[in-house]
Write a structure and sequence with these properties.
By secondary structure, the chain is α/β, with parallel strands linked by helices. The protein is built from eleven helices and 17 strands. The chain has two domains: 268 residues, Spore Coat Polysaccharide Biosynthesis Protein SpsA, Chain A (Alpha-Beta Complex), CATH 3.90.550; 82 residues, no CATH class. It has a five-stranded mixed β-barrel. The longest helix is centred in the middle third of the chain and has 17 residues.
């Protein structure tokens, strides 16, 4: 455990849960059916797996103070701040540089801050297997793959290859983009595919070598960051260098290019709460109700709806498969089957110069 590190990835904006999730208060800082926010639940899930000072948070500056308030147990210096969101390849490069500076052989797992995991013991075992594997095989870029329980077209998939001897770890044959429903059903039936949850495990020095080989533009900027870490005015210098990096997910920058890549399959009772329809499914399963409502809502003959009301009475009659989310400045009404299209709505709002609502 002495050279194991966990980094909570909290830089996402959660736009598909708009208008609850906003730029300055994204979904990971909200509670959905529990007394703790998603990021607090993530911390509680991992706090016993590594020493307290080996837990870091990667995030953007706009949510730094709120995140520090929600996670007082994490040292202030363990918040790795991006000046702007540039996807996971730059953010994980910054993480690798930060860990490398204090422990070049440090083994790191990056975990999302906004996932729900119901099978905690399975999760902890998967993390331990991943740490142990990378400790013995430091050249490998490793991931945790979620065993699917349904065909899902909103997630990427991992095709599983041969198993390593005396291990719970497998080679990755292929990363597969989000499939259509026919392929998703085929993947589920075959038993050879896992959901890609973007949990990655790697050794700091080896990951920097991968960036040098497969993503030289990001590596050059990371080298500059390594040279200024720990010096006066570090954050301002990092901010300037970081803005030079291209926007790119680590999947295409590293994961899909490396030869030595492995996966730990895991049955986690998992959900990424990626949309209002996903949240509906999660809460409906948990409560046993077909219509989920919070706040001051009264409904008659509604079916398969999700309603978030405020203090003002929100009244509904005969709705089916509808999401209503009421906030002080915005009310969203959406067909549940179209919840993934909220990203398109966000783009329209930007075009209409109403960005203050985001």
């Amino acid at each position: 455990m002495q050279n194991y590190y966990i980094v909570i990835m909290a830089g996402g904006s959660g736009t598909r849960l708009w208008p609850i999730s906003r730029t300055n208060l994204p979904k990971q800082l909200h509670s959905f059916g529990n007394d703790k926010s998603l990021i607090q639940e993530t911390y509680n899930r991992i706090k016993d797996l590594v020493p307290a000072d080996h837990i870091y948070v990667s995030l953007v500056n706009s949510i730094l103070k709120t995140s520090q308030k929600q996670l007082p147990e994490i040292p202030v210096e363990n918040f790795i701040v991006e000046p702007e969101g540039k996807n996971t390849a730059p953010s994980i490069a910054l993480i690798a540089a930060t860990i490398y500076k204090c422990d070049p052989r440090g083994i790191v797992i990056t975990l999302a801050s906004d996932h729900v995991i119901n099978k905690l013991n399975n999760f902890k075992e998967a993390v331990k297997h991943a740490f142990s594997f990378v400790a013995k095989n430091p050249a490998y870029f490793t991931t945790v793959g979620i065993k699917p329980d349904k065909p899902d077209t909103s997630l990427g998939y991992i095709k599983v290859g041969r198993k390593f001897e005396h291990s719970a770890v497998y080679r990755v044959d292929q990363f597969v983009e989000k499939p259509n429903i026919i392929k998703a059903k085929q993947y589920l039936k075959s038993g050879k595919y896992l959901w890609n949850a973007s949990y990655f495990i790697w050794r700091a020095d080896k990951l920097l070598e991968m960036y040098e080989k497969y993503s030289p533009e990001i590596y050059k900027a990371t080298e500059k960051i390594l040279n200024v870490l720990g010096k006066p005015g570090t954050q301002n210098k990092i901010d300037r260098i970081y803005r030079e990096m291209p926007k790119e997910p680590i999947d295409t920058a590293i994961a899909e290019k490396v030869d030595d890549i492995a996966v730990v399959p895991a049955d986690l009772g998992w959900s990424d709460i990626g949309s209002w329809s996903t949240l509906y499914d999660l809460l409906a399963q948990k409560s046993g109700n077909h219509t989920i409502s919070q706040g001051n809502h009264i409904g008659v003959d509604d079916k398969n709806c999700l309603v978030y009301a405020q203090d003002k009475l929100l009244a509904t009659v005969g709705l089916e498969n509808i999401v209503i989310v009421d906030t002080p400045d915005v009310t969203l009404v959406c067909n549940k089957s179209k919840a993934q299209d909220i990203k398109k709505l966000i783009e329209k709002i930007k075009e209409s110069k109403e960005e203050h609502h985001l």
